[in-house]
Amino acid sequence: MVDWTAGSIKDDNSALDIKLIDLSTVHYLSGPIRILDEDGIPAKPGDLVAVEICNLGPLPGDEWGYTAIFDRENGGGFLTDHFPCASKAIWYFEGIYAYSPQIPGVRFPGLTHPGIIGTAPSMELLNIWNERERDVQTNGLQSYKLCEVLHSRPLANLPSPQGCHLGKIKRDTPEWERIAREAARTIPGRENGGNCDIKNLSRGSKIYLPVFVEGANLSTGDMHFSQGDGEVSFCGAIEMSGFLELKCEIIRGGMKEYLTPMGPTPLHVNPIFEIGPVEPRFSEWLVFEGISVDESGRQHFLDASVAYKRAVLNAIDYLSKFGYSKEQMYLLLSCCPCEGRISGIVDAPNAVATLAIPTAIFDQDIRPKTNKAPLGPRLVRKPDVFKCTYDGNLPITRNPSAT
Amino acid sequence: MVDWTAGSIKDDNSALDIKLIDLSTVHYLSGPIRILDEDGIPAKPGDLVAVEICNLGPLPGDEWGYTAIFDRENGGGFLTDHFPCASKAIWYFEGIYAYSPQIPGVRFPGLTHPGIIGTAPSMELLNIWNERERDVQTNGLQSYKLCEVLHSRPLANLPSPQGCHLGKIKRDTPEWERIAREAARTIPGRENGGNCDIKNLSRGSKIYLPVFVEGANLSTGDMHFSQGDGEVSFCGAIEMSGFLELKCEIIRGGMKEYLTPMGPTPLHVNPIFEIGPVEPRFSEWLVFEGISVDESGRQHFLDASVAYKRAVLNAIDYLSKFGYSKEQMYLLLSCCPCEGRISGIVDAPNAVATLAIPTAIFDQDIRPKTNKAPLGPRLVRKPDVFKCTYDGNLPITRNPSAT
Amino acid sequence: MVDWTAGSIKDDNSALDIKLIDLSTVHYLSGPIRILDEDGIPAKPGDLVAVEICNLGPLPGDEWGYTAIFDRENGGGFLTDHFPCASKAIWYFEGIYAYSPQIPGVRFPGLTHPGIIGTAPSMELLNIWNERERDVQTNGLQSYKLCEVLHSRPLANLPSPQGCHLGKIKRDTPEWERIAREAARTIPGRENGGNCDIKNLSRGSKIYLPVFVEGANLSTGDMHFSQGDGEVSFCGAIEMSGFLELKCEIIRGGMKEYLTPMGPTPLHVNPIFEIGPVEPRFSEWLVFEGISVDESGRQHFLDASVAYKRAVLNAIDYLSKFGYSKEQMYLLLSCCPCEGRISGIVDAPNAVATLAIPTAIFDQDIRPKTNKAPLGPRLVRKPDVFKCTYDGNLPITRNPSAT
Amino acid sequence: MVDWTAGSIKDDNSALDIKLIDLSTVHYLSGPIRILDEDGIPAKPGDLVAVEICNLGPLPGDEWGYTAIFDRENGGGFLTDHFPCASKAIWYFEGIYAYSPQIPGVRFPGLTHPGIIGTAPSMELLNIWNERERDVQTNGLQSYKLCEVLHSRPLANLPSPQGCHLGKIKRDTPEWERIAREAARTIPGRENGGNCDIKNLSRGSKIYLPVFVEGANLSTGDMHFSQGDGEVSFCGAIEMSGFLELKCEIIRGGMKEYLTPMGPTPLHVNPIFEIGPVEPRFSEWLVFEGISVDESGRQHFLDASVAYKRAVLNAIDYLSKFGYSKEQMYLLLSCCPCEGRISGIVDAPNAVATLAIPTAIFDQDIRPKTNKAPLGPRLVRKPDVFKCTYDGNLPITRNPSAT
C-alpha cells in the first residue's frame, strides 16, 4: 500500500511539500476487497466481518516515514492556532525502532497499524453521512457547539469532485461527476470503521466490522509505523507505505447479534475491536493533565476536547525545557506511543484529560528532579541545527538556551 | 480517611440512600497538611511539592465499597439521560480483588488511588475559579457550547453555605458565612490538582503539585478501590474509606522550572503526575468505539465528550447481551479498570473515542464468536435476582431472557 | 510475623551479627493454622487447601530489611567459594520501593512475598524426608553427583535438638528430645511447599497446598520484601518482619483430582501456584548467560546449577564495572527483581542458564555502549565509603578505580 | 534460512521422519558473515559485535513449523526416559499466532527468535572445547556428576566427519577430513553464543558477541517461531524456516571493557543479551514446582536440572487431566511461551525450579477449581483422534476417559 498521500511527501529536509500539499486527494487506499466465505458466498448486509491483522510493516527497502504539521491555511491540526506553520520530521526505521534526525535523542518502538480500515457504506448510510455533515458545515458556529480555537479548520469534508479517486470509473464523465458528488470523503471515522486511528491495532488484533453492502467491500490504508493517541498534528502518525496481511471471517447475522444501533436507524452502529497481547511494554510514564478551561481562561462545560488540548499543550511546554523546540515536541507527541485518556468526565464544569508519555523513549531523564535525590545528570548537548525548514525558509533549531 | 460521603451510603440492599443523598456536603477530605522541608521551612508559593504515594488501602475491618448511579434530579452522571434512576452496587474486597453480589460473574484487581489530592488555592486563584465558573452557570446554554444531552446536570458547583465544611470555623457566624460564599467546591479538578480522578495514581506514583499558599496546605480524600477512566456514573469508582501514606518533598522554585502557565496569569498551570511500575497486567482487551455523532444522529464537531459517551453506550449495550442489565454494566464500566482513550481528535468532523475493557474480569468469554472457531461455551446461568433496588422499589434483575 | 531470624540481625553498620549468627535456630515461623471449612469441618489428608494471598507488607513502623552474605564457615551461599566473608546491606522501604545506603544508585519496587508457606507433613512423609536427606549427608560426595564447588556447605539440614523450636512442648523433656530428633528442618522446600522462595507469590496469588494431616496445619513466615530468582546469597532476599492476610478454601479430594504423585508413594507430590496479575512492569532487561562449564574450565553434563552459577558470576563481574564492588552486586542480585531462567537443558553437554536484570533499577545506563550511539553519560560518582563491615573489620568500599 | 534440519521434516501426519532423522547433519546454518565497520575495517579479536535483531519471521508462503519428540535411541530429549517414542506436532501460523491440529484447544502468540547465533571460535578456543567435551564423553559417569536419568543420551557431540557441512571445502579430501575432525558441532551453546536458545531474543533485542577471529564470522539459524524455556523435548521449539534482518555494530576492544573471563584463559567468556520491550503480555500464570528429588525418590544435592525435570513432569501430568495425552503436553511445554525459573538454589539439599504457564493459551480454564466458586464450565469435548503417528504406527489419541 502507498502512504496516505501516495508519495507526495519526500524524504528530504524541506517542509515545502507539506506546505503545498493538495489535501483534496487523500486518502489513497487499497481495496475494495470483496469478502467471501469458504463456500464462495459473499458477506451480506447484517453480517459482521472479523478481520484479523496477521502481519504488517513497512515495504522492504522503503523503511522510512514522516510526521508533519500542516499549515493553518492548508489542513491545520489540533493545535493549529499555536503552530500555524508547516513542519516535517523524517523517521528512519531500524526493525521495531524509529528515530528522526529532526528530533534527536528520541528512539522508540513502533506499534504499527493501519490508520484506516472499513467497509463500504450502503446508499442509505451514505445519505445519512452527507446530510449530517453538510448540516455542520452549513450552520457551523451558529447552531453547533464548536470550539472556537478549532474553528479555523474545515468543519467537515464533504463529497467533492476535486481530487476524487473513483477506481475504474472514467474521469469527468457524468457518472464520475455524479458519484464524486455523493461519495463520502475518508477523513473522519464513521459507522463503517474508516479512519479510526486506534494506535493499538497491530499484529494479532481483530476488527469486527459491520457489513452494509454485499461483499462488505473492505478498504484499508493510511499505514502508520507509530501513532500517539489523538494523532494531534493531523499528519501526526509516522506515515509510511507498507504491507498488510489480513485474515477475514464472516459472522453471519453478526450485526444483530453483537451490535446495538445507537441512533434513529439500524445503521447507527460502530465496529468492535479486539486488541492482541503484543505491544511494547513501558515501565514508567510521565502524565500531563488538562482541564476544560481554554488558554484564554474561559471555562467550558465538561468538554474533553478542550481538556485534551490543554494536556497536550502542557506536555509540549514541559518537554521543550529539555533542549527541544515546541514544534519538535508537537511532532513527537503526535507519533510516539503516548496515551491520551479521558480521566474525569462527570465533575462539572471540568473535564479532566491526561496525556501519558513513556519516559524510556528519551535518552535523558525527563522527570522533575527533587533537590535531594537527583537521578542522574541532565544530558547536556550542543544545540543541533536541524535541516528541516518550515514556512518557506526558517530552520527549526533546538533552543540554544536550553540545557 | 472517610469515604467521600462520610458514611452516608450503607452496605445494604437498597438504593434509597443514593436517591436521597445530600450532595451539597461532599467531598469529605483529610487535611489541610502543612508541608515543611527538613529544616522546618514551609513550602512557598512558586514551589512544587512532590507527593509520592507510599501505601494505601481500605481500612482494616472495613473492606467494602460502593458504586452508584445518582438519580437524574440529584446529581446524575455522564449517561443520566439514559439512566435516570438511582442504583447501587456493593463491592467486597478480597486482597487486591473486588466482587459484587449485584454484578455476579465479575471479579477484578483494583488499582487503588485517591480521587482527590490537591493544594490550597491562593485568594487570587480562587477568584479566577469563581468568576469563570459563575460565568458558565449564568450564561449556560446561550453562549457556551454545551452538549444538550448533558445539560440536565448542574453546570457548575459554585460556593455555597449549604452543606459547607469549614474545619474549625464556627458555623453560622459572619466569618463562616463569608468564607462559605467564596470557598471553592471540590467537585471539579482544577489548577491545584483536586478531583482529577486519575485511576493509575496508585502505589509508587508521584504527584508534582504547584504551591499557591505558604505550607501548600495539601488535602486529599475520595479514596477509590478502583475506577474506570472517566468515572462515568459520577459516583462511579468503588468508593471507600481508607488510609493513605504519603512522602512529600519540596522542589524550591519548581513551578517556574517545570510548569508553564497556560492562560492569562502565572497561576494557570496544571500538576504533573508520574505513574509507577506496578499495576495489574491484562493480556487482552475488547475495545468499543464512539464517534461524535449523538444518539439523535446529530453531528458534532470534533467533540470528544460526545464520542466518549457513544463509546460507553456501545460497550454497555454489547455487554448487556451476556446476561446483564444495562444498569449493571453502567455501574461496572464506571469502576472496573477500563481505559478511555481519545483515539482521533483531528479528522473533522468526527472525534473518535474508545473504551477498552480487559476481558479477564469476566468469568465468561465476552468476545464475539466466529461461527467456525468457538472459544468455549458461553456461560449459562440461571437468572439471579439482585437485592439492590432503585427508584424506590424495583429490583435490578439479570435479564432472564439472556443466555 | 518476625523475620526468619526473629530479630537477630540489626539495622546497623556492622556485619558481625551475620558472621556470628546461630543458624540452627531458623526459620522462625507463624503457625500452625488449623484450616476448617464453613461448617467447621477440618481439611483432611487428600484435600488441597487453596491459600490466596490477600494482603501483606512490612510491619508499620518497622519498614526496613536486610540482605546478607553468610561466612563460608557459617552457612555460606551459592557463591561461597567466591565470597567467603560475611557482609550485610540494610534496605529502607518507601512504599513499594527499597533503597540501601550500602548499594547507592539503586532503587527498585519490591514484589513482597512469604519465602515459606506450607502444610505439616504426616509421619510417613516425615520419614521419607529424613531417610533421603540422611542418605545424601552420609554418602555425600562418594555416591552422589555433588558439585564440588558447592560442597563446603552442609549437604543437608537434618533434624537436631540444637536450636529447635517446638511450640508448647516443654523443652528438654524426653518428648521434646524425641520430637526434635525427627522433626524436619525448614531449610529446603519439599512436597508440602515450605521454603519454595518463589519471588512472584505476592498479592492476588494463590497456592494450592496438599494436605497430609487433619487440619492441614499451615505454617508460614520468612517474609521477603523482594527477592531475585535463586536467592543466591542464601540470606538473599530483603528479609523483614511483616504481616500477611490469607484466605483459605478447602478443595475436598483435591490431591487426587489435581496432583500426580511423582515417586514411589502417593505422597510424592508438589504444590501448584497461581500468579496474579499485579507485579512491577519492566521494559528492558540485560541478560547474562552461563553454560555448564565451571570456573576451572571443566565440562559438566547438562548441569543447570553450574550454568546458573556462571550466569550469576558473569552478571556480578559486569555490573562491578559501573562503580560497585563485587560483594555489593552479589547482594543486589540476591534481592532485586531479577529473573533466573533455564534457557536450554537439552543440548549436550551444555546447559544454558540466564539471569535477566531490569535495567531501570539503576540510576545510570548499564548497557554496553556502541562507539557511535552513546545513550547518555555514564554516571561519575565520587567513590563512597560504605559503613557496613565484613569479616570483622574491613569496610566495603565502592571500588575507587571504577568509572 | 532453512530450518535446522534443512527440510528433513515434513508437514504431514506421520512421525516417521522424526524417528529416522539423521541428526549428524544438524544444524544447517546461514553464514559465516564477515563484519566490517563503516570504513571497511573488519571486527578483530577482542572486539564485541552488537547484533540487533531488526526483523524476522517465517518465509512468506511457508508459514508452518513443527515440534517433535525424538526417539530415545536417536537423540532423545530432557524427558526421554518418560517419552521414549518419536512424536510430532505440526503448527500453522496465523500472523503472530500458532495452532496445531495435533494439540487442539491451544493457540498462542509466538516470540520468534533464532535459536543459534554466534561468532566463529579461534583455533585456541576450539581446542579448549574439544578437549573438555572429549573428557566428559570419555570419562562419563565415572568421574562426572551425571544425572543417571539423563545418561541414555549422548554425553557430548564431538567433531566427526559424519554428516559434516564445510561450505566450499571439497568433500572427502584430506583437508575436508582434517577440518571435520576438529570443527565443533553446533549442538551446545558455548563461549561464542551459538545454540543458546534464549526464547526472548525477538525483534528489538541486541546480542553482544565476543570476536575471536578477524571479521567475527557470524553464523545464525535454527529459527524458532516460539519456544518454552529449556526447549525440553530437544526438537522442542516450533522449528521453521525463516528470514532474519540484523544490524551489526562493532565495539572496539569491547571484550576487555565489558566481559570478564571466567576460567583459565581470557577466552572463557559469555555473550551478553539485551531484551527489547516487545513481547506478548500475559496476565495470569499457573506455576508448577519441582524439587531436586528424582522420580525414584532419591535426593540430589541442589541440582537444578533434576528440580526442573520434576517441575516439567508435574506440569505435564496436571495438564493431561484436561483432555490431553502426556505426549501432547510434553510437545506443548517445549514450544509454548512458558517460563522455566530457578527459584531456590541455596536451601540444601533441595533446589527448587518452577515452570510457569500462561493460562490464556488454552481455550478452557485450566486452573484448579474450588468447590464454591467455579469459574466456568470445564470444556467437554468429544475425544479427538489425532492423525500424527509415532513409533511406527500408534496414533496419539486424546485420552477418551478425560473430560
From TrEMBL, chains A, B, C, D:
InterPro entries: FmdA_AmdA
Gene3D superfamilies: Acetamidase/Formamidase-like domains
Gene Ontology MF, one: hydrolase activity, acting on carbon-nitrogen (but not peptide) bonds, in linear amides
Domain of life of the native organism: Eukaryota
Protein name (database record): Formamidase
Organism: Acacia crassicarpa
